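User: Predict the complex.
Assistant: Input components as received:
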Amino acid sequence: DAMVIQNPRYQVTQFGKPVTLSCSQTLNHNVMYWYQQKSSQAPKLLFHYYDKDFNNEADTPDNFQSRRPNTSFCFLDIRSPGLGDAAMYLCATSRDQGWDEQYFGPGTRLTVT
Amino acid sequence: GESVGLHLPTLSVQEGDNSIINCAYSNSASDYFIWYKQESGKGPQFIIDIRSNMDKRQGQRVTVLLNKTVKHLSLQIAATQPGDSAVYFCAENPGGYNKLIFGAGTRLAVHP
């Protein structure tokens, strides 16, 4: 059974048109993360939630926002997508902070036209 | 540090051979290291981890070696199978809130 679910798996949006990516988890984990992975590159952390506390990485552009309305769901909002934002977006969860294993979803591949 | 580059290094091995994938990490304060396997179109999958108070850890067909002196990590896969073909990333946790910093990745290609 899928534990970290991302919808949609493929998303196409237009340049400048806001888009929202969705992640849900059945693990009841406290921490949820969003990573950006560009082609042939490593995943890069954008931000994470520890429970309701939002933690932004220093180099994450303001164009990227996130919401976590409850334990199970977390959303990635891209306010004005540029061509450079085309990437795979990965959601991950961990039970807690520290040394806990992170469980990744299958990712959403975003195309910007 | 950040990983950059458009082309992943590739390790090609024959089915049944042992594979060794290497990784250099950047932060001497990192105390937890993980190897992930990522197949095409999928999210990274946990393989094995090691804490900084160890220099070797074994799993099923996999072994991770940690050399803190030279900040080097390696993943050994015994009797490599076609299903092992994927991109392998090492990741380091510099402490604090479980932030993972991923290495550049190595593509493993297994030939019959």
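The two ends of chain A are 34 Å apart (CA to CA).
Let me know if you want any component modeled separately.
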